[in-house]
Model the fold of this input.
Amino acid sequence: MTYIVTDACVKCKFMDCVEVCPVDCFYEGENFLVIAPDECIDCGVCEPECPVDAIVPDTEDEPDGKWLQINAEYAKTWPNITVKGTPPADREQYERETGKYEKYFSPKPGKGS
Done:
């Protein structure tokens, strides 16, 4: 099992999870974070840190493994992030919106740390 970042992170990107990860397995996109499945040690400390419940075990992924695949793909190309950055100023207006990946996701990398 590994943990994965899901739709709720898009355009919110609070980054509280980054600070607690003991193995630095988060990678930053322009408006989304992902977890590198091959690096995650399944400790679960990141899950309760997310204020929008965007982090779940891969056992709670969609039946087709959509989020595991997205996390694995972008962890290969986006920069590693180990320090909490500044979340988007407008994040609160997107906190409880659903279907954000299809509407707002950007494949562009973030700045990393």
In short: The radius of gyration is 12 Å. Strands lie at 3-5, 26-28, 33-35, 55-57. The chain has a mean pLDDT of 94.
